[in-house]
Amino acid sequence: MEAPGDATIRCVGGIAFDPHGRLLLIRRANDPGSGQWSLPGGRVEPGETDKEAVVRELSEETGLDVIPGTLVGTVTRGRYEIHDYRCAVAGGVLTAGDDATDARWSDAADLSALEAGGELVDLLYVTLRDWNALPRA
């Protein structure tokens, strides 16, 4: 029998780009990946749909209002099953908040530099590449 502490935790993430094709990233305040750059997102709360969770999490972590779109892909990181959705930014002002210590738009060169410097959460770059979701700029 599975212990309650071993249960899979459903999470969501948002893949959003600005008009210049730069990818939205946050620096994680907490583990897993504390201090590293990642996609904004977090746990799906009881009674919430994935899309409601994406809207809430991105608002809390980035100050941006988003409209969630299609599911881009799903990854499992330890106990966390993360469903990443493409998002369109509808408003707000980019400001780090909640579980994020910083937030930024990252172009292709910046994202590559973060990857080379070990500043991205594990496997983020390769996952985004495999999903054809790297910054265009």
UniProtKB/TrEMBL annotation:
CDD domains: NUDIX_ADPRase. PROSITE patterns: NUDIX, NUDIX_BOX. PANTHER family: GDP-MANNOSE MANNOSYL HYDROLASE, MUTT_NUDIX FAMILY PROTEIN. Residues 7-128 form the Nudix hydrolase domain. It comes from Amycolatopsis camponoti. Belongs to the Nudix hydrolase family. The keyword Hydrolase applies. Keywords: Hydrolase. Gene3D superfamilies: Nucleoside Triphosphate Pyrophosphohydrolase (3.90.79.10). The keyword Hydrolase applies. Its EC number is 3.6.1.17. SUPFAM superfamilies: Nudix (SSF55811). One of its GO terms (molecular function) is bis(5'-nucleosyl)-tetraphosphatase (asymmetrical) activity. This is Diadenosine hexaphosphate (Ap6A) hydrolase / Bis(5'-nucleosyl)-tetraphosphatase (Ap4A) (Asymmetrical) (EC). Its cofactor is Mg(2+). Pfam families: NUDIX.
